[in-house]
Amino acid sequence: MKLPRLPSIRQRLLLISAAISLSTIIAASTLFVVNDVRLLRSQMVRDMEVLAVVVGNNCISALVFDVPETAEKILGGLRQEPQIRFATLYDAQGRIFARYLRDPGLPAGTPTRMEDGVHRDVSLLGIGTVEVLRQLTLDGKAIGRIFIHARTDQLADQLQHYAALAGVVFLVALAISQLVALRLHRRISEPILDLASKTKGISERGDYRKRVYQPASFAEIDTLVKGLNQLLAAIQERESALKAHTDALDAANTRLRTLATEISVVEERERKRLAAELHDGAMQKLAIASLQIEAVVKHPETEEHAAGDERLDVGLVLVREALGELRSLQFELSPPSLYLGGLPRALQSLAAHISSRSGVAISYVQTTEIPELPIEMAVVLYQCARELVYNIVKHARASKAAILVSSGGDGIDVEASDNGQGFRTDDETGASGASGGYGLYSIRERLAVLGGLLSVESGAQGSHVTIHVPMGAAFSMPSRADSEVTETPELRPLDP
Q1: How far is residue 151's CA from residue 82's CA, in Å, rounded to a whole number?
Q2: Of 130, 164, 198, at which residue does a domain stop?
Q3: 3 state SS of 397
Q4: Domain contains 82
Q5: Which of 342, 421, 424, 440 could form a disulfide with 430 if both were Cys (CB 3.0 to 4.6 A apart)?
Q6: 426: which DSSP letter?
Q7: How many CB atoms lie within 10 A of CB 291?
Q8: Owning domain of residue 495
Q9: Which of 115, 139, 164 is the last residue of a domain?
Q10: What are the distances in angstroms from CA 75 to CA 60, 89, 100, 105?
Q11: Tens digits of per-residue pLDDT, 55-89?
Q12: Is position 245 within any domain?
């Protein structure tokens, strides 16, 4: 749908000047007409009151001597006042004594109110009726009343005259305002149009380093130019920041691709290691145990009782050793204690397990009570701690190490320290020195999901790595109920 074209500045100036002229003339004319009509009506009411007093006093003698003809002649003098429609003279008993009708074909009316005074029936702009009722007295005694009914129709003629005069004034004022608007158009609109043209040129070229220069003009135009230049500066700064972020994102993508390749290589290496350990360890022992037990089962008559028991004992020992090695491999893949006992128990088991296998004395220290953590957070913290411990065993050449866990008001801290040879910390990817290739970088990526931080201190006396995760960390991972992680019961050796 095509939007309607907005009016130009010139058209708006013409419309504004016409609207101002029209509204000013209408307001002034309305005030003038209302005030003039009010004054004319007030004057008419005063004239009616004076006329009622004069005519009533003239009719007193006719009432006293009971001469209705004389009263009617006096009332007939009201014909000189065209606004008076009818008048009635009442005696002391309220009976009609004499009457005047401008139009004999119309019936005479009666007072709408019986109180003496002026009664107005006002309609639009004061055009309506005026009734005057006066009591006539002689020597302090009431001898009758006079009632005069008049209309103010002549005010309509005055309003027509005003309307014609206002129309002429409006046309003259409109013509003058249009001439003034045309003269002001160049001074007002051309700087704005020139500014719009320069702005459009900058936008089309996309070069926000340029600034708009505008010759001396109105203060509002200068303010607009300053604001536009500030906007261009902000856009330029935003573009520079966006370019820096884009470069950083490209570098991060490059590191991620490298990391993905390294992860694939490490995963394949781990598969080969696990396969070799299974083949050379548990599978070999299970195979030998199977042969020992099978020999006893298939040839019980050829075996001496003592020799058969010895073969069974050797087979059971091999089965137990194989089960122990399988439990060790299971612990490395996914420790059951993490899901059964929480993070503290899993880290304690990790320290004991790695110590027994590597020969590095790894201690576990817990300084505060650790609250129950969401399983997703516990898994990430455990994986990060395990990566740090593996790096210590593989690369630090340390004799002692420690895992320290504490809980503060703002989060959970997991620390790993050793007395090894240390490594360089200037490469945030962790690829330099003996940091295990992608180890520290992968830890940072995992912690970023939780909003956590990783700090590293390393030197000749050893290394100290701290992981901090806020207590209220939340991230989009499948819940424990929805995930594929299941609680694996601990393997127990067979009873002899």
Answers
A1: 9
A2: 164
A3: coil
A4: yes
A5: 440
A6: S
A7: 13
A8: 335-496
A9: 164
A10: 12, 8, 6, 18
A11: 989 998 888 888 899 988 998 888 888 888 889 99
A12: no
